[in-house]
Amino acid sequence: MSLYEQRAAQFKTLFGVETPVFNAPMAGVTTPQMVAEVAGAGGLGVLAGDLLSPEELQQEIRQVKALTDKPFAVNLRVPPKNPSEQGAR
Questions:
Q1: DSSP assignment, residue 82?
Q2: Every domain of the chain and the residues it spans
Q3: Helices 32-40 and 54-67 meet at what angle, rounded to 10?
């Protein structure tokens, strides 16, 4: 088994999906419908959590759950403790 095949198998097992692909969680672009379609097609649908309030994110998660019973993920960005450190890299 090639390294690719091993990684693909690990991805599928870890996330409970049929196909080792996921959509890019693009803030402001990715919709609950897109996430549900990717999940329904056997991949890992990923919802973008950036730019959403906690209430908006909760609503979008509910929408995805209403559209599919397949696994999906939520991408959250955690800012640095000290915002001035962000440019120091």
A1: S
A2: 19-77
A3: 40
